[in-house]
Fold:
Amino acid sequence: MKLDARIEAAIETALSLGQGGVAPPRLASAMHYAVTPGGARIRPTILLSVALACGDDRPGLADAAAAALELIHCASLVHDDLPCFDDAALRRGKPTVHLAYCEPLAVLTGDSLIILAFDLLAQRGGDRPQRALELIRILGRRAGMPFGICAGQGWESEAKVNLSAYHQAKTGALFIAATQMGAVAAGQEAEPWFELGARIGEAFQVADDLRDALYDEATLGKPAGQDAVHARPSAVAELGVQGATRRLSDILGGAIASIPACPGEAMLADLVRRTAERMTPVAPVRV
Structure:
């Protein structure tokens, strides 16, 4: 099965766990709406690619890890779009959850997806409890405080921002989770995979800063220019467009060299190259 089909099947299986019994139908619908159709699914793709590179001896556990990671990511988007944060009207080219449903259901949708992610790992890790426990620990660490996406959001309320720490927490955290969880799901140690995830994550955030500054709403499928509107820290604000572009190139240059030795090392190097091509803004298109 191709990775994209494998990821979508794992996500649908996960969502079915949160919709059984006599579930509130609008909340169940909002959860499905928030997760599908997906974007690039880059985080679960990296996770499963690392698992494959390390042997993928428990594909069911790797699938659960990939789905759990994407659920956390989607939950963060639902919360980010709320009026108290970005007050966004579009996400992936369609109305955001709080507009398609309502603000209370958007809050509950994000909360429910987060809880479902950990429930999924606990359920699917029965035959490898130590791996499941480590997966839960990694995901919790990279979703919360002080190193996760909650910390990243928190930096936006500080008067003085450490841009590197902000990027690693806001965006890098789930890429670190992707590489480490992929390794752990396949029975390998997590620590050697930290640097690769951190490098990809920081590159992704710098690229996102560039796209926000250069692209229009139609191209992004979400509001553009939000970093400037909300006075958020960004690589473009700190370094300018040319400086941020150079920074992106520098980060990606070291990512391939950071891949730990593993049977699928060449495959992962190719994945990083293709990811770099996809994330690099090609030209200003804002009108």
